[in-house]
């Protein structure tokens, strides 16, 4: 049944925890390792980065809490944020990640090539919230995966925007983080996040090929892995990840569309054509140039993601990971402004989110609400990840 012309009611979709993520897909059990628990002993030695507390008569060693300095929102350019990062020693680029030990040069050719995943002595506390709304479409083709601690203390967030049906988006939701976990915890893993994520996306794409009914179905995918030291993003399509750092909206992904000169050149080099039909489209059909699935448009459409690895700093405030239902209505700066207003209790006029500071889930709901006030009709899925408190009264 078609939706009415009035703004649809925003429905909060609250994840039900790891138990809800344990369903089987194609007969493959999904096992998500739980975060390691602190060891309890009668005599617990002191260790940097840990605190010793008494719990029910026993001494427990737990990670020390992270302290960060709150910042005020400023209207500055992303270039200013990057300049500040260089001055303070923080920078974007590849690194090993928290809890990951890269093997030394001599170890690579030895018998033990395993990269150990170890609990970080300092675990950054984050909070997340997610909302997925059908809008005025007849079918819901978005899918969202939120898996805290999917590998030890690494958190996984992803949105998938399906087209031609929801089959590929659902498969990505069920399989992407499981397969990535298997690759990262394998004996031969060398700590290369970029290569591993590209391999993971290509393997998921091959799994789609096994289903003939999905030949004309595809999905975008933006995957975000948050550690205590890094934010790792893999993007395929036009869903986006944006970071608010010291009041500046910092894009962590770039849309992959046929209108991009480099993407157009790649498509034409493969023998394809970009035809204008209500925008640039591959063969006049698809307006995104990298997806999972869409086998009827291979090899012009590829599943290889673009990777961003950014070192975290104490200026980083929150992440927004969302499908294009949000970004077609709001700019990155507008979206970050709204989330900050929600966290500090200053909601925009005519909004249901007035009053005291709000949670990450309510911030995600506010973004969806605003997209429909702007006249959006598409499916919209949003994940907000709070990396630190913006106000001392906001609960984490």
From TrEMBL:
Residues 102-117 have a biased composition (Basic and acidic residues). Residues 77-86 have a biased composition (Acidic residues). Residues 87-99 have a biased composition (Low complexity). Residues 1-120 are annotated as: Disordered. Keywords: Hydrolase, Magnesium, Manganese, Metal-binding, Protein phosphatase. The keyword Magnesium applies. Pfam families: PP2C. It catalyses: O-phospho-L-threonyl-[protein] + H2O = L-threonyl-[protein] + phosphate; O-phospho-L-seryl-[protein] + H2O = L-seryl-[protein] + phosphate. Belongs to the PP2C family. This is protein-serine/threonine phosphatase. It comes from Dioscorea zingiberensis.
């Amino acid at each position: 049944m078609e939706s009415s012309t009035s703004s649809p009611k925003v429905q909060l979709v609250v994840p039900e925890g790891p138990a809800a993520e344990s369903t089987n897909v194609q007969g493959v059990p999904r096992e998500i390792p739980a975060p390691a628990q602190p060891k309890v002993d009668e005599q617990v030695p002191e260790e940097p980065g840990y605190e010793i507390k008494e719990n029910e008569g026993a001494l427990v060693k737990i990670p020390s809490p992270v302290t960060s300095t709150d910042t005020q929102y400023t209207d500055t350019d992303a270039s200013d944020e990057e300049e500040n990062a260089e001055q303070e020693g923080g920078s974007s680029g590849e690194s090993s990640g928290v809890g990951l030990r890269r093997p030394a040069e001599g170890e690579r050719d030895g018998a033990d090539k395993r990269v150990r995943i170890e609990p970080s002595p300092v675990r950054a506390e984050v909070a997340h919230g997610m909302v997925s709304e059908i809008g005025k479409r007849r079918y819901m083709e978005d899918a969202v995966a939120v898996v805290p601690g999917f590998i030890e203390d690494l958190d996984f967030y992803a949105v998938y925007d399906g087209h031609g049906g929801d089959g590929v988006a659902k498969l990505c939701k069920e399989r992407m983080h499981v397969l990535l976990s298997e690759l990262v915890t394998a004996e031969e893993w060398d700590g290369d996040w970029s290569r591993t994520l590209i391999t993971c996306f290509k393997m998921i794409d091959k799994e789609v090929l096994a289903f003939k009914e999905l030949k004309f179905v595809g999905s975008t995918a933006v995957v975000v892995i948050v550690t205590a030291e890094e934010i790792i993003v893999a993007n395929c399509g036009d869903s986006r990840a944006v970071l608010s750092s010291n009041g500046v909206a910092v894009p962590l992904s770039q849309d992959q569309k046929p209108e991009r000169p480099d993407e157009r050149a790649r498509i034409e080099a493969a023998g394809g054509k970009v035809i204008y039909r209500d925008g640039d489209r591959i063969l006049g059909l698809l307006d995104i140039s990298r997806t999972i699935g869409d086998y009827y448009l291979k090899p012009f459409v590829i599943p290889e993601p673009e990777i961003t690895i950014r070192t975290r700093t104490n200026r980083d405030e929150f992440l927004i990971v969302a499908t294009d239902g949000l970004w077609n209505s709001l700019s990155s700066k507008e979206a970050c402004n709204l989330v900050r207003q929600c966290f500090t209790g200053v909601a925009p006029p005519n909004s249901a989110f007035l009053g005291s500071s709000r949670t990450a889930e309510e911030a995600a709901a506010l973004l969806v609400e605003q997209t429909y006030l702007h006249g959006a009709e598409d499916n919209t899925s949003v994940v907000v990840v709070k990396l630190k408190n913006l106000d001392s009264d906001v609960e984490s």
